[in-house]
Amino acid sequence: MSANTIVVICLVVAGIIVTAIAWYSYTKTKDSVDFIVAGRNMPWWLIAGSLLASSTSGATFFGMVSNYYREGFHTHWVILGIAASWVVICFLIGPRLRRFGGYTIPEYLSKRFNSPLLRPTFAIITIAWMVILMSTVVVQGGLIFLAMWGWPYQLSVSIMLVILCVYTIAGGQTSVIYTDFAQLVIFIVAAIILVPITVNAAGGWNHVSATVEAVQPGYFSPTGGVMTAVSAAALFFVWLLGYLGHPGLLTRFYTARNEREIYKTGIALSLVYLPFLGSIGFVGASLRVMYPEAEDTEILWIQFAVEHAPAIIVGLLVAALVAAVMSTANTWLLTAASSVTHDVARRFRKTDFTDRQLMTWTRWTIAFVALACLPLALARPTYIIEMMTIAYSIAGASGGIVIIMSLYWRRMTKAAAWTGLLVGAGTAIIGRLISVLVELPDWFDPILPTLVVTTIAVIAVSFLTSNDDSDAGFEAIVDHAPRSNSPRT
Fold first, then answer.
1. How far is it, in rounded angstroms, from Cα 276 to Cα 291?
2. Tell me, what's the pLDDT at 457?
3. Which residue from 6, 129, 174, 275 lies 20 to 30 Å from 358 (Cα-Cα)?
4. Which pTM does this prediction carry?
5. How far lies 485's CA from each of 42, 256, 370, 479, in Å?
6. What distance in Å separates the CA atoms of residue 396 and residue 391, rounded to the nearest whole number?
7. pLDDT at res. 97
8. Quick check: 120 pLDDT over 90?
């Protein structure tokens, strides 16, 4: 049996498993509660698996490996920022959001500050930066077919987009969570097998570390030998606050059976995330030794696997890559589409949706949001991690700060929420544009002043404006909301 046949068989088997789960989920999806928040009946291990699958994704195989290859171990600051965000999300944010019991983050903010217009505004800003994130996922899918079979990149991207649309439309959130867990298992097995194979093929870790350090002194230092402590801090906070402001991750807690399941999720993520993602640095350094003059560093690991690994391992890797891409894309597509229908369309529609209309509109919106990602995915303007950093800069400044402060600071007012949203998004976008158009000092990253300015603006406006009925919103949603264990509450 040829190696190519074995790879195809692995893909087909993984596809059958995922399709079966999606079909099962489709048959169990009866209403919008099932479609958007999985009936609010998910256990901790499924939520943890889904979150881990969504946050690792193909960006780990392509983007993270490439970043380690090019820039060194300062990429650890991305992983540390995400790991810190899991602690905050699972122990400080998730339980309170579950207690609220809504559908989306814009809905929560609207009720917290009694500001109906805040809901569609936050949703529109969120959807804008999520399109950037989703385009990186489509890029990852295109790279898989390009690297494995040499298909034209534009064709590969288009095929992956169609697959993602059909898959997400089928089963909604229930399908997303169950298939994410199945895909994570494939993903972890492939990584556990392939990481030591990669290091050994490069001559062992002692040889790798000595060779790379000679070429790029400081490669293994906290700053990778190429960045300052300020830049490292900026990278950490971009990903920390970016995840805090990511509705695609936060809304997963609306699916939990109760708050206890969220605390268990946090413990599981804390034990698994850092060891698993930290091992990717060894891969990047090893590939640096084997392919010192590589042009496209984002497809190196799959290129290595094809050249050095047994066919069954290559098949497992490709299946894991496709699974990782799908697990991330379906989450973000569903979140963006749900926000369009639930937070934007409902706000401007004269009559409310019926439950069936809400599901139909959400499914159509999934297709439209996916198409919005296509131009950026086809253009592939820069590296995957750089595109994601831009998106998370906007997410952290506009959403992360506002969400965490709204949950824990009673004095925060409606005007302050609007200020944080608009100032955060505006300064993050302006800062990134300046960094592209103007050569800034190596020690300076515009995200740090953006975060500081946004935080100061929220605090200042809160003290300068009336608390109006925001205090009542805090009481109703956070302090005294029932801690119901009823799944559909």
1. 24
2. 93
3. 129
4. 0.77
5. 12, 10, 35, 17
6. 9
7. 82
8. no
Q: Which among 109, 82, 106, 24 has a CA at the least distance from the CA of 417?
A: 109
26 confidence band (pLDDT: 50, 70, 90): low
What band does 310 get if pLDDT is binned at 50, 70 and 90?
A: confident
Residues of the chain with pLDDT > 90, as a percent, come to 10
CA–CA dist 428, 420 (Å, integer): 11
φ, ψ of residue 39 in degrees (nearest 5): 70, 10
pLDDT reading at 207 higher than 90: yes
127 pLDDT more than 50: yes
Q: How many helices (H) and strands (E) does the chain have?
A: 23, 0
- Distances in Å between the alpha carbon of 235 and those of 131, 226, 410? 21, 13, 30
The token pair that represents 214 in the structure block: 């000679």
Q: Burial of 312 by CB count in 10 Å (0-12 exposed, 13-18 middle, 19+ buried)?
A: middle
Q: Which residue type is seen at 104?
A: T
For tokens 């809304």, name the residue: 251
- Tokens linked to 310: 């047994």
Token pair 């994130």 is found at: 133
Q: Is there a contact between 71 and 289 (Cβ–Cβ < 8 Å)?
A: no
Taking residue 353's Cβ as centre, other Cβ atoms within 10 Å add up to 17
Let me know: does 378 contact 136? Beta carbons within 8 Å.
Answer: no
Between CA 16 and CA 10 the distance in angstroms is: 10
What average pLDDT does the chain have?
A: 80
| 238 half-sphere exposure, CB direction, 13 A CA radius | 28
**C-beta pairs of 200-207 under 8 Å, 24+ apart in sequence:** 201/286, 201/290, 201/304, 201/308, 202/285, 202/286, 202/287, 202/289, 202/290, 203/289, 205/282, 207/289
pLDDT at 108 over 80: yes
Look at the chain and count its residues.
Answer: 489
Q: How far apart are CA 467 and CA 10, in angstroms?
A: 59
